[in-house]
Design a protein that fits this description.
Largest sheet: 7 strands, parallel
CATH topology: Rossmann fold
Helix content: 40-55%
Structural class: alpha/beta
Radius of gyration: 17 Å
Strand content: 15-25%
CATH architecture: 3-Layer(aba) Sandwich
CATH superfamily: NAD(P)-binding Rossmann-like Domain
Distance between the termini: 33 Å
């Protein structure tokens, strides 16, 4: 898959799925703007290897100012935005009634409102180009109820409906919008959730055992699929909810 001449924006780019998406886009010839609240926003090794084709933006995606800034820097550096991967996300592992208002709001702001902010800044650019691809990262929690995911599950459910709405709204502008919903993936977010559970080993084993394929996924596996969905090989695909979950949601 050749993305030479295309520019991608990837949120949650510092680690996990996001960092792998950044790497694969760069290796496929794309220019990339990586966004994360962490420092550095993209792995240092990638910045050294792909200097000139990689811009990093540090910011909180729950704030509109971050979307304004990464859109501005993408256009300033590369002149356009062709691909947008809304990958940034957080979890709060506890039953719904135990959430504080601040915890609920934070999960919704990062996992859902960030997609609104990105749409406000990136969609107008794509409409002008009459082309673009958006991939929103959902979860098995988008479609399955799971213990301890009080705010996270509803936030990822909202990602699906935002995807469908955007796909219908912007299809005539040549913009494709799809949701990729991974099963359990070995990422820093997962490791953090395991610690929050109070029983990290048991938490991870239960999640792995829940997948008929018999394991959890590597971040690179999800990134490879995201790259395919962004490519011309998937040019007839829009509004799709794509489960990449080792059979979890088929049970």
């Amino acid at each position: 898959m050749d993305f030479t001449g295309k520019t991608a924006v990837v949120t949650g780019a510092a680690s996990g799925i996001g960092a792998e998406v950044v790497r694969l886009f760069l290796e496929s010839g794309a220019n990339v703007v990586g966004v994360d609240v962490q420092e550095p926003p993209v792995p240092a090794a990638l910045r050294e290897r792909f200097a000139g084709r990689l811009v990093s933006v540090r910011g909180d995606v729950s704030q509109e100012a971050t979307a304004v800034e990464y859109a501005r820097q993408a256009v300033a550096a590369f002149g356009r935005i062709d691909l947008l991967v809304n990958n940034a996300g957080i979890a709060c592992i506890k039953p719904l009634h135990e959430h504080t208002e601040a915890e609920w709001d934070r999960v919704m702001d990062v996992n859902v409102k960030s997609l609104f902010w990105s749409a406000r800044q990136v969609i107008p650019l794509m409409k002008q180009q009459k082309s673009g691809v958006v991939v929103n990262i959902g979860s098995i929690s988008s479609v399955c109820g799971m213990m301890g995911q009080g705010a996270y599950g509803p936030s990822k459910g909202a990602v699906i409906q935002l995807t469908r709405q955007m796909a219908i709204e912007y299809a005539a502008d040549g913009i494709r919008v799809n949701a990729v919903c991974p099963g359990t993936v070995d990422t820093p977010l997962l490791q953090s959730a395991a610690v929050q559970s109070g029983d990290p080993a048991g938490f991870l084993k239960r999640l792995a055992d829940g997948h008929p394929i018999g394991r959890i996924a590597a971040a690179e596996e999800i990134a490879q699929f995201v790259r395919f969905v962004c490519s011309d090989h998937a040019r007839f695909m829009t509004g799709a909810v794509l489960m990449l979950d080792g059979g979890y949601s088929a049970q």
